[in-house]
Structures are given as C-alpha cells and as structure tokens.
Design a protein that fits this description.
140 residues, alpha/beta, 5-stranded parallel beta sheet, 6 helices, 43% helix
Length: 140
C-alpha cells in the first residue's frame, strides 16, 4: 500500500470546488490503495488555514470545516515526529510536511506547489499533483 502526505493547498482546493482532482482525491478517503498520514503540526496547519475567513465561503462554515478535519483525523494514519532538521526548505510550513513524509516513509507528498519541494529527492519522497497521483492509482 502506498503512503502519502496531503499538503494543505490540496484541502483548500477541494473545499473551493467539487469539480477538480483535489476533491476527487479527498473523496477517496479512506482508501484501500493508499494510506494518508497526518501529524499534530500538519493538523494544526490544516485547521489554521482552512478556518481563515478567505477560505470559509458561504457553504463552508467553521463547524463543518472542523468536523471535516476530525473526519480526516479518524481516517488518517497518525505519525509522531521525534526529530526536526529544519530548515531544509524555504518555507517552514513545507518543512513540517516533509518531516512527516520522511518519518512515515511516504512515497509521495501530494501538492500543487511542486517547486516548494524541488530538492527532496535524497529523502526518497516525490512531490506530485493530485491528478497525477489519481492516475497512478488508476482512479482518473
């Protein structure tokens, strides 16, 4: 079974539209084809970003977003991180995603910001867009 970390921008995209690859990916959770990993720092980032006023459209209320995040916690594999080797990437918020991917031995970080993860090849993790990942698991 493949292991993945889902970057925050994927959740933001899925929240804004039910027509794209992000929504299709999130709709697959839980999956028999891949395990989705989460850590406390990533959960806190999800919560911070998704509950910002600019992301809470008329159809997304804070209570619903928090319920969705609790659901993600329920279906995700939880990974504790016992080491920090920051900074590795330009953005510290991206470092926490990379640390989780390495600690949980994930093959992929699913993100729209491929350039933000451009120098992670040495960790055995590949940044990939949701549509590409869905193609790999043959769900497109």
């Amino acid at each position: 079974m493949m292991r993945v970390v889902i970057d925050t921008n994927i959740l933001v995209s899925a929240m804004k539209s039910d027509m794209g690859a992000s929504y299709a990916l999130i709709s697959k959770l839980p999956s028999k084809k891949f395990d989705f990993y989460i850590s406390v720092p990533l959960y806190l980032e999800y919560q911070d970003v998704l509950t910002r006023p600019e992301h809470m459209t008329g159809k997304n209320k804070k209570e619903e977003i928090l319920a969705f995040l609790r659901y993600l916690c329920k279906v995700a594999e939880h990974q504790k991180i016992f080491y920090l080797w920051r900074p590795w990437l330009k953005d510290p918020k991206d470092d926490l995603v990379l640390e989780l991917a390495v600690a949980s031995q994930c093959e992929y970080i699913i993100t729209y910001n491929l350039k933000d993860f451009s120098n992670i090849q040495n960790f055995g993790v590949k940044p990939i867009r949701p549509k590409e990942f869905l193609s790999i698991i043959r769900e497109v």
